[in-house]
Amino acid sequence: MTEISVSSPPRLGLDNTYADELEGLYVPFTPRGFPSPVVVQLNRALLAELAVDAAVVETHATGLFSGSLVPADAKPLAQAYAGHQFGGFSPQLGDGRAVLIGEIKDHLGRRYDLQLKGSGATPFSRGGDGKATLGPILREYLMGEAMHSLGVPTSRVLAALTTGETVWRNDALPGAVLARVASSHLRVGTLQFFAARRDQASLKRLVDYSLARHYPERVGAENPALQLLQAVAVAQANLIARWMQVGFIHGVMNTDNVTLSGETIDYGPCAFIEAYDPTTAYSSIDHQGRYAFGNQGAIGQWNLARMGEALLTMLAPEEADAIAMVEAALQVYVRTYQAVLLDGMRGKLGLVDAQPEDQALVADLLQWMHGAGEDYTLTFRRLADGLKDDTRPFCDAGFAGWQSRWLARLGAEDHAQVAARMNLTNPLYIPRNHLVEAALDAAIAGDIGPFETLLAVLASPYDTQPGREAFAAPAPSEFGPYRTFCGT
Ligand code: AMP
Ligand code: MG
Fold first, then answer.
1. For the chain, is the Cβ count within 10 Å smaller at the N or the C terminus?
2. Ligand 2 centroid to 413 CA: how many Å?
């Protein structure tokens, strides 16, 4: 028996500002649900942050999050968007396997989308089945929680379910669906969709809506399109600089995956870097390394340029003036990115003030790490350990030279104090690739235990957790080179 036949739809206290204010920018669409959904994981910590009746959500979780039971106050819809994928423009993407259920708030009054992903085909599916499978659904859950605990702006998964269906990819796989919570799903690609159609009226509504929703402090200024472009420049620069500090590779930084809010979204072939190498690109479809670790800052700028292009006609009547505004916004992006990144790297090295030589100090450490094949995450923890015990964390001569420069730069401050500060910003636990794969494999085989254990460890990434040493270690060599997949 399905949920829908035994329950009348509850109200969740949803708003529907996207549906109400942006008619014509989406297709109303009700998910069909699944015959035998089962909740695999419910994010109670996230649920507790939301201003919804948790008891109602828990009671109806299976129906609500599989799409079988659409809340009485929902106006479900599939959003239209376009996007540059690996550099090539697709004028129509859209929610091909996602449905926006409505908007909820947290206890601080901040608004979030509640979206289902993997809930079945929509008018934007372009021949796809609109479905998802358990591995990628749980990966998105785990990665989102890890990023959240690391302090990186991100969408989060509220619930992951199996659908009871078999989904065919290269293999027969367990079908799954997730419910996610994001500040919004407005993307650079959303603007591009209407710009490509020369639909100025929709573009304008979208710009006004986006500004009001994400940057209300900028509403009322003379040029809303310019305000939005500059705000996104700052938000994305901050976001990508944070990715670089924690070693995160998004893997598919297409403009449809770039949010206007500055949150990480659309976890597909993402993974954390292990041995430091800026050319690392795990994704099986990223043949050229376009979205490699070290390219992410530049790709962010490229994506922002596409946003500028989409807004060109709105920015100024004269194209030359509009182009100058885009160029200025790109400069804002570059300057913000470099400043936030350098500041973060200073923090990782325990430095509090800024000195001109810091840039070279950071670059030379990274270069040494690359040459030595050292682990990006653990190197910073070992630097702190070495400070605490007054030992040399790495033996080679290249490191010794760098270490004396660093120690001189640290000056007279108590080393134990510096080390303690470093450990607040350098994680000990990241989602190690081999552990993620093992946890997902176990879950697919029916054992959710390793997933839950890993999730628990990653909830406190900066704290040493006795007995959890194995969770901090890089992949053993027999794990081999890592590859990730888009999970469609
Ligand atoms: P993604 O790579 O997940 O960001 O998706 C890129 C585009 O492909 C989006 O428009 C998705 O909605 C669409 N898409 C991905 N997988 C599927 C699928 N299984 N069925 C239909 N559309 C899909
Ligand atoms: Mg996407």
1. N
2. 47
